[in-house]
Amino acid sequence: MKDKNVLLIEDNLELQNLISNFLKAYGYSCDVFSQPLEALEEFETSHQKYSIVILDLGLPGMDGFDLFKKLKEIKNIPIIISTARDDIGNKIHGFELGADDYLAKPYEPRELVLRIDATLKRYNNADEIIIDELIIDLDRKRVFLENQEVEFTKIESEIFFMFLENINKVVSREDIINQTSLKKDTKNRTIDMHVSNIRFKINDDPKEPKYIKSIWGIGYKFINDN
């Protein structure tokens, strides 16, 4: 189950084993790493399967805050910092970077489970969805690619969010005209131009689409296999 997958990065093997077993007892799956570069390599190739990271700061070969930033560059994933650094300066820095919670060691493993539950509940209730490399703020109608906001024109935004409302459904060019601010006499090639611009801005190759698939003779389909 995707929302139960935890990536634990902790170099204290005794604590690593304790936390991992405790999480599994509460229904979470947990992949554990003590070496930050190994954890980063795993996250680069498999980040889609993880829903949250538990991150120690005192790691060998790389400071935890540096690893934090690298993880966030790959995916905007919730991260709980688990560390012996309990001073206010480190806590402030962690939250400034975007940490979702900060637990100072020692703590009861049950508290960590409760913090994970609360963090994932906030994320699952948020008006934000993640599709592959796109982070989409439904409330503010904003789209981010690799943490950089995509600058759509007004009509491109209308078309994109129309596609989003019809995920895995075919949207005809006529639908696009009727449900956006395009004029009724808009030509098909004009619609195709707008869609081409959207594809370019979200890094979507029309020959091997990750997001927008052309449906010959009809229109388009926004695909999401997650």
- The gyration radius over C-alpha positions equals 21 Å
Which class of secondary structure composition applies to the elements?
alpha/beta
Helix-strand pattern, N to C?
EHEHEHEHEHEEEEHEHHEE
Please identify, by name, the CATH architecture of the largest domain. 3-Layer(aba) Sandwich
Beta strand count? 12
The low-confidence runs, each spanning 5 or more residues with pLDDT under 50, are none
Percentage of residues in helical conformation: 40-55%
- What global shape is seen? elongated
Task: Identify the CATH homologous superfamily of the largest domain.
Answer: Response regulator
Strand order of the largest sheet: 2-1-3-4-5
What is the count of DSSP helices, taking H or I runs of 4+ residues? Answer: 8
CATH-defined topology of the largest domain: Rossmann fold
* N/C terminus separation: 12 Å
Biggest pleated-sheet summary: 5 strands, parallel
Strand coverage percent: 15-25%
The total number of structural domains is 2
The averaged pLDDT comes out at 90
Descriptive labels:
single chain; 226 residues; Arc Repressor Mutant, subunit A; 2 domains; 4-stranded antiparallel beta sheet; 8 helices; 12 strands; 21% strand
Produce the secondary structure layout:
Layout: E1 5-9, H1 13-25, E2 29-33, H2 36-46, E3 52-55, H3 64-74, E4 79-83, H4 88-97, E5 101-104, H5 109-125, E6 128-131, E7 134-137, E8 142-145, E9 148-149, H6 154-165, E10 170-172, H7 173-179, H8 188-201, E11 212-215, E12 219-222
Parallel strand pairs: 1-2, 1-3, 3-4, 4-5
Antiparallel strand pairs: 6-7, 7-8, 8-9, 10-12, 11-12
Helix pairs in contact: 2-3, 6-8
